[in-house]
Predict the 3D structure of the following.
Amino acid sequence: MPTKTAIVGVGQTDYRFKRTDVTIQELAVEASRKALEHAGMTLADIDAFVIGVAPDALLGINAVDRWIGEALGVAPRPLLRVNTGGTTGAAAAQAGYAHVASGVAQRVLVVAADKVSESPDAQWVLNTAMDPIYEKSVALNAINMCSLQAVRQMDQYHVTEKQLASVAVRSRKNAQINPHAHLRAPISLEDVLASRYVCWPLKLLDCCPRSSGACAVVMASERVVRKEHSRAAWIRGMGATSNTIYMGDKMGPGRDVDHADWDELAMAAARAYRQAGITDPVHEIDVAEIYAPFTCTEIAAVEALGFANKGMGGVMSEQGMFEMGGAVPVNPSGGVLNANPISATALVRIAEAALQVMGDAGDRQVPGAQRAVATGIGGTLQFHTCMVLANDA
Amino acid sequence: MAQRVGVLGAGFTAFAGRRDDVRLEELIFEAAAAALADAGITRADIGTVVMAGADQLDGRSISSMMAAGPAGAYLKDEIRTTSEGTYAAILACLRILSGEYEVALAITWSKTSEGPYDLISNLSYDPFWLRPLAFNDIVESAVVSSSYQSSTTLLAEAAPAVVVKNRSHGSANPRAYLRAPVTREAILASPYIAYPIRKAEVPQPCDGAVALVLASEGRTLEAKRAPVWIQGFGWGTGNYTYGRGVAAELPGLRAAATKAYAMAGVTQPASEIDFAELYDGTPFDELFAYEALGLAPQGGSARSALQGDFLDGGRCPVNVSGGAQSTNLRFAAGMMRIVEAYLQLSGRAGPIQLAAPHQGLAQGGSTYPAQGHAVFVLRNY
Amino acid sequence: MNQKEQTEAPLIHSGEWKIHYDYAVGETATQFFLRLRDQGKIAGKKCPSCQGVLVPPRAFCERCFVQTEEWVDVGPEGTIEAFTIVYEPFDGLPEPPYAVAYVTLDGATTAMANFVRALDLSDPEVAARQLAVGNRVEAVFADAREGAVTDFYYRLM
């Protein structure tokens, strides 16, 4: 039987464009300290460390985990680094879970950090993630690959630019109550629609910023939680699904999954929901933290998570289903659209979901939240993760 | 530990200095398909794919994007670590023991013929303190060697002996990349590249990919082939900067071994371990590992090596496969150590088969920057 | 040194990664590029299991996990599956605006990305209508070809 595992501490730095006052080491330590403090532990209590950083080139340091590890006083303890692109933070959390659930460790620190602003332009780096032989020279990057999704959503489901804009407006409204968020100035629907095209049909305000910051969580075994903690976010279910890097394979007549949709996330969610005993997500999930770096991606995600029928995510967003106080509040934190410290972003979703079920989410708390779902996305919209957290084991 | 992880099969590619006949993704597919065939299963049986790869070595940012499909992860669970090749096996073991997955494909690769390895190694150091000092993995190994507390005269004598031993072992291994033995004289005649490491003590690299199929205990017992178990495993980390303890004592490796031995119930490694496949990127790495793993007494590595304890036929044969000295897969070298240990314990090691081994040890290691080590105790009963 | 002697903003050390790679394209892509360069043809590889024609060609099918064997010429005409028009300059990438589309070339099972040229991109809405999903394009081959993806581009028909 796997050991039941919970998150007992969460730490986040504020997310800002630049943090020239600290090194990446110091940034990771800042979040780690807060997480340990929240968990009532010290570094000496930790059995093993998981560090999430991706990709190296954004920071300009290859094996940065070892350098961060030095600042955390890791030696001689175990350290494992995870790098799966956008999903890195979530994959690191899944790796951390495996440490505890396997019985190999009792207390694990999972930390992810990024200083995206230290590379000149993230899209240049992300272009080097594309197939160097067939696709890199066609100037693909993280923004235009999402534009391709939006184009297919518009074609198949008549998603409108106004629906996309509704996601941006709601997210920004929530960001105003999250002190960690990077972008917090209010925006209107008109502002979004009037912003300039970056990659058609995505406009500037449909896109996330590049942020610096770090996030850490402390995980512990049931034995530790029962003895030492009054509240915890139990990891009740998780799933991950990977697809091909080739977006063209998700468009031609031979496709298994359409680039418009996130069926991969639906698969990961099906597994996580099954493990957590969730059969009616709209009523059983109290809050969702969705990794949506562009407005169109949130629409695909709410459908994959079972909050809206396929093709209806945009309509439901416009109708207010995902507002604070709506049927399923989405991204009370303001989401990725308002803070994207790439390596840490997927862990931030899990951290925020954990805070919600622990009742520690401050002004952005969804009252009485008992079950939360957190997602991650990476690669050419090819990696998907899903985790269900609950206030009971 | 009540539970253990089984090895269902192993797969690896042809090794060559340059595998220009395939792009990296095709190399990965070659190993993954071979591992599935060896295990007698198909891609449908795989629950999770655990990869180990490093972006800059692969020449692709987030290289798992390209690698996931060829590694068998199409519409499956997949995760990647970048720490070192054998960390894929560590994470796969954790995921199986957590009850999340029954069968895992752990895979890693190295195709460093396509990029400037020494430069990439240097870029792995922090930009302020060590990178400007032209550190790379060889320089770090050399610096670690200088901290050795016992007789450095004996150490200098033992280093070429380790290379001669491993290359001699490798000459009998049909899987090895370098098959020609080397002489002590040839090694001593080669120049120092970073004192005390000589040019002939750092093996020529080769391209290749290596995969293991791992499974839960229940799933392993269903397999037709007699099981080989990962009975214990552990991993640990060294110090990034020097001045905290003795680097050559390899504190990360000691911590890894302590954990692995405890899990496997090994209390007297020198007598309970029948053979070992160790990280030998330089002979000094192997020499220091003898002591850290308890295969030689403290301060006794060089003496044990010189008296032939670790030769094929010796007290505890080390790297009868020829080790990385014969097949320098760099990032994937450690994973090949596990594969060679597995083949020994399943009686399929071919011309280098040891007589009835029951318990072996495999080690993955990376020197740069700060040592990262993983230890696996494998058993066939 | 005093507790706080710093009088300037924190220092920035500049650094640059210049890592040169020689990517082995492998035998499958080599054949594709030679056929493209020497004959101006686009070819895919057929999966013996699902019969899918993979373009660009892969040596193996990720889904069926078998090696591909048979070559099949596809195109030069095809159907737009998705597109974008880039209006923002990105470091190291081409000067905007430029259009990229995924196109299922006739006879292929998968779509292949390339630039769409010979199209006025100054008005986003007008250009986007012309590039709508389902519209037809043809591959146009450069006169001087070097064996790279950019030896051809898509043009609206």
Observations:
- The first helix of chain A runs from residue 24 to 39.
- Residues 5-119+210-221 of chain A form a domain with the Peroxisomal Thiolase; Chain A, domain 1 fold (CATH 3.40.47.10).
